[in-house]
Amino acid sequence: MKCPPNFLLTVTAVALLAANWQVFRHRPTAPAVALGIEGSVDTEKYTVASSDSAAAAAAPEAEVAPQAGNAKSQPHNSIGAFDWVQVESTDYKQYVRALRAIGFPEELVRSIVTADIDKLYEPLEQSLKPKRVPYDAPLSQRQTHDISSADWQRVTDLWNLRVHKQGALQEILGEYVPREILRTPISRNYEAYEYAISQLPVEKRNAVQLAQETEILVEGMNKTSINDRAAELEAFKKSREDRDATLRKILTPEEFERYEMNTTPAGTELARRVIGMQPTDQEFTTMFRIAYKNWLDTGGVYGRWRALPVPPAQIAAADAEMHASLKEALGQDRFLDYQMAISDTGQKMRNFGARFELPRETLAQAFDLQTQIDRLSRQRGPAQSAVETMAQLQDHLQQVLGPNLWQAWQEGRNLQVSLDP
Questions:
Q1: Domain boundary among 179, 199, 233
Q2: DSSP 27
Q3: Any domain includes 346
Q4: pLDDT 10s digits, 171-223
Q5: Full domain range(s) for residue 43
Q6: Does 352 map to a domain?
Q7: How many domains does the chain have?
Q8: Of 52, 95, 103, 333, which one has the greatest count of Cβ atoms within 10 A?
Q9: Could you read off the pLDDT of 372-400 as tens digits, one per residue?
Q10: Is residue 167 part of a domain?
Q11: Is the distance from CB of 57 to CB of 165 less than 8 angstroms?
């Protein structure tokens, strides 16, 4: 009887797991001294040499060879045609080569080795990890700047230890191993950094991550040690300039701009706001350049929004310039998509248009009219003239949509949806 493909895959997976168990169950935990992590953290030993060196993340020069079991002391285990005594080795590199040679999936090989190394480093990491603040704790506890020099030393030690662990894994596996970005008690968009690094060529990721982490650490320490706001802002600008200089040595101009789009608030917020627009890569790059100019023109300093005081008139002029530049760069149709994507009214109008298959011209007219109505309604104590204008705009919108669609639009806008069970 012919076995179904899924059955054969299942049997193969079970056999591989069983084989791994037979090898793994007899293998004693490797001594920490084999990886050079015995005792307390030696910051001199683990300190990263420089943020612009990809080699800084490599393992120490000494051979990384934690115990993978002693073949002479292990009982003879064989499964199928394989003699598992021949697989085991006191050298992790040899052990990995043996597992790969007999057909273990790469993901499983990585999992076995990573679990071993994580277990070795866990005691030291645990002693250095900061105490987690509950998500529902008061804001003063979640965003406190009351961080001692001893706290910062533990953050630094944990960072260096994880760089060392990453180097050990890369030495054993012979390939890049991702590492969690350095996190400090200071709030940052750490997930954005990890995503941006994952989009870079593999051979550049370690060096970029080290440069970024250096900036994160320096900025955090400055924030908690420099009391004068102006002086702290200058220190932040200097740390960012140093980071940029390092990144530009590693990345091409295109890669650097893409990294900025994926990490700066001007880029990440823009990406979040235009989800419904679905811009092309070229469109988003163009919009980011315009949005980042606006960020700087309105007082932004790198990742800090309006860090410098700017007169309201200058902000209004900068916003008007951004509006005009986007309209020119995107064209009438795509600019309409942009406008609808970034506003609640626009998102509802876009969905309404798709539901009733409104012609593009009708959709554009209806959105423009409703936007004007919303703007007037937000005015405090609108004058009689504004009330009359709103009534005229409402009548015009009803004519554009027709009685039935007008009624559907009004009901849909005011519909309150309850998600309670």
A1: 179
A2: P
A3: no
A4: 999 999 999 999 998 888 999 999 999 999 999 999 999 999 999 999 999 99
A5: 12-133+144-179
A6: no
A7: 2
A8: 95
A9: 998 888 877 667 777 888 889 999 999 99
A10: yes
A11: no
